[in-house]
Structure formats: structure tokens, C-alpha cells
């Protein structure tokens, strides 16, 4: 069956609904593989980029598989003015998306894999941060060249079972200290936050990064994407926030995405004056408890193997970047990743 191809982010409501349902009903479904992220990214950070969304429909007309693709150009090396054309996943690149890939019913997987192999037969295929559930869709000749650990915590047995006994006791002491100092925590579920909160998140994120002496890709030029996501939020789906306030002052924000029974912890910022009181850990602990109270069963810390994530009992789900090179440009990208030690 030949899929229908959409070359604009302006999809009809039924297709968007079906796409969301595919992601929600897939136990490996990802926020970053769904229409909310992909279409908002295309309208903002990816504005002007050539994209195509392949949709396979069943006999009843409902979407049974959705594969969002884009054509892009990658720098072969940061010091060389050489760009290589690639076919990639729409919604990846700037914005730091994890667990990327299509949304596919099991009985459509072979058909989607065959179509992708034919679509990419003459082009270099670059699939970054591909969720391991989708490796069976890769064309022959694809090889892993990058890996990203994405720890996640299982909340099935509740937040009080996460981590060691000593770690849980330390969290309780931190919460008591913070409460005694006048701090309180507040949860804002999807559809309840104001756009100005993103500016506060960015301000606190900068404070924390400056204190830690590190760089970050979460900068002001990313905010149009997140403002659009915020404007589209509805109860149970979209951006959610865990706040920490010291009396009337906002001193901490944790930001992520809530959908189905999952929460993806995307970014945080907090005032480093509270570092000695473990505000960062308490903020994460509060977000876990708040999301669990709403029925979340998987708390995904997303990319990065920072030790604190594993103290919450998180276990890695590893994304990989896959390259299927074509021509001299593809060979150059392959050499780049080989020199970087990709696997």
C-alpha cells in the first residue's frame, strides 16, 4: 500500500487524533514521536525545512502508521564548511528530542520498513536518537554511530519505593529543611501554566548553569517551540511544571511533558542559593510524586547519565543514532562518527 504524503504541518484534526492514539497506545510510545511535538517543531525551530509525513490508513480510514521525515544538511565537521544532505526524522535536531521514530501498528511494521528502504535508497539516511523499539524498521546497511542513555523510573509501585532506604530518608530530611525555611512545592498540570513561566524557567536555568560552570542548549531561541506547545496543552496532555516557591519568590522550576501514563522530564532551573539544602533533588522528588498522583507510571529522565537519576532507581533505555551512508558525503559522515568513537 502506498502511503499518503503530507508536506505541511497543517494536518486535519482526525489525522492528528489518530497519530496521538498510535503513540498513546504503544507501550514504547514517545512524546517526541507524536504530533504535538513534531508539528510544533516544524512550525518553529524547523520552519522552512522540507518535510514529509507518510500516513498509512486502514480500511476504516484511520491512520495505522505515521512516519515523519525531513531533508536536512549536516556539517561534516565544525571546522569545515562542508554540509552533507541527509534524509532524517522530522522533529529532531535543535530542541533535544529523545526516543524518536515513527508511530506504527505492529501489523504495519514490515510495510513501513520496506517503504523507508525504497524512499532512502539513493540518500544518506540519518536517524538520531532512535528509540530501540524501531531498529527493526532500519534499511540494510544502517549502522549505529551514537548512543544516548535515557534513564527512566518505573512508578508502578509508587514513589515511596524508588531508590535506596538511605536515599529516601535523605529526601525526607531535605523536604523538612526546605519547609522549615519557608519553601513550598506546587504542581501545574497541562493546560494551567501561563507563557511567562517559560521565561522564569530560562532565567533560573541560566542561574544554575552559570553556578555549575557549564553550557546549555536550552536558550531563548528555543522558547517559540515551547510557547506553542504550551498554547496547545489540554488536560492530561502537554507541558507540566513543578514549582518551588520561597514565600512569594519563584526559586525552582521543573518542566516536562505529560501524556498517557508517562511524564518526560525535559528541563529544570533553580536558584543555586538553595543548593546546600538539596533543592534540585527535592524538586525532582516532588515532580515524581505529583505526576504519580495523576496516574503516571513511567517517569522518563531523558538524555544524560547524571548520577542523581540512578539514585531514584532509574534504569537506562538507550537511544542510538543510526547512519546509512550514500555517496562521498555519507562516507564523510561515517568517517566523522568513526573518529568520534560512535557505536
Automatic annotation (TrEMBL):
Q: Where do Basic and acidic residues bias regions lie?
A: 154-164
Q: Where is the BioF2-like acetyltransferase domain?
A: 166-309
One Pfam family of this protein, by short name? Acetyltransf_6
Q: Which InterPro entries match?
A: Acyl_CoA_acyltransferase, BioF2-like_GNAT_dom
Q: Where is this region: Disordered?
A: 137-164
SUPFAM superfamilies, per this entry?
Acyl-CoA N-acyltransferases (Nat)
Task: State the name under which the record lists this protein.
Answer: BioF2-like acetyltransferase domain-containing protein
Amino acid at each position: 500500500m502506498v502511503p499518503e504524503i503530507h508536506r505541511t504541518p497543517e494536518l486535519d484534526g482526525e489525522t492528528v487524533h489518530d497519530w496521538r492514539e498510535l503513540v498513546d497506545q504503544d507501550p514504547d510510545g514517545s512524546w517526541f514521536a507524536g504530533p504535538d511535538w513534531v508539528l510544533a517543531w516544524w512550525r518553529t525551530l524547523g520552519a522552512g525545512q522540507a518535510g514529509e509525513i507518510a500516513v498509512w490508513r486502514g480500511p476504516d480510514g484511520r491512520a495505522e502508521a505515521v512516519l515523519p521525515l525531513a531533508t536536512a544538511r549536516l556539517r561534516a565537521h565544525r571546522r569545515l564548511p562542508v554540509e552533507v544532505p541527509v534524509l532524517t526524522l522530522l522533529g529532531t535536531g535543535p530542541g533535544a528530542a529523545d526516543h524518536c521514530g515513527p508511530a506504527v501498528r505492529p501489523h504495519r511494521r514490515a510495510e513501513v520498513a520496506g517503504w523507508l528502504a525504497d524512499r532512502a535508497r539513493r540518500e544518506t539516511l540519518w536517524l538520531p536518537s532512535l528509540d530501540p523499539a524501531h531498529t527493526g524498521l532500519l534499511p540494510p546497511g544502517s549502522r549505529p554511530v551514537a548512543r544516548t542513555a535515557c534513564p527512566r523510573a518505573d512508578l508502578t509501585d509508587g514513589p515511596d519505593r524508588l531508590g535506596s532506604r538511605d536515599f529516601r530518608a535523605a529526601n525526607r530530611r531535605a523536604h523538612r529543611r526546605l519547609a522549615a525555611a519557608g519553601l513550598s512545592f506546587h504542581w501545574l498540570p497541562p493546560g494551567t501554566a501561563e507563557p511567562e513561566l517559560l521565561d522564569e524557567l530560562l532565567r533560573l536555568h541560566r542561574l544554575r548553569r552559570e553556578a555549575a560552570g557549564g553550557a546549555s542548549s536550552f536558550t531563548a531561541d528555543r522558547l517559540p517551540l515551547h510557547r506553542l506547545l504550551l498554547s496547545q496543552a489540554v488536560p492530561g496532555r502537554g507541558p507540566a511544571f513543578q514549582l518551588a516557591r520561597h514565600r512569594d519568590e519563584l526559586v525552582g522550576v521543573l518542566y516536562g511533558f505529560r501524556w498517557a501514563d508517562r511524564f518526560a522530564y525535559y528541563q529544570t532551573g533553580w536558584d543555586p542559593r538553595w543548593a546546600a539544602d538539596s533543592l534540585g533533588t527535592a524538586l525532582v522528588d516532588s515532580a515524581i510524586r505529583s505526576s504519580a498522583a495523576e496516574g503516571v507510571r513511567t517517569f522518563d529522565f531523558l538524555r544524560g547519565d547524571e548520577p542523581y537519576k540512578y539514585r531514584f532507581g532509574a534504569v537506562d533505555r538507550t537511544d542510538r543514532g543510526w547512519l546509512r551512508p550514500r555517496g562521498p558525503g555519507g562516507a564523510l559522515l561515517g568517517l566523522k562518527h568513526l573518529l568520534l568513537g560512535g557505536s
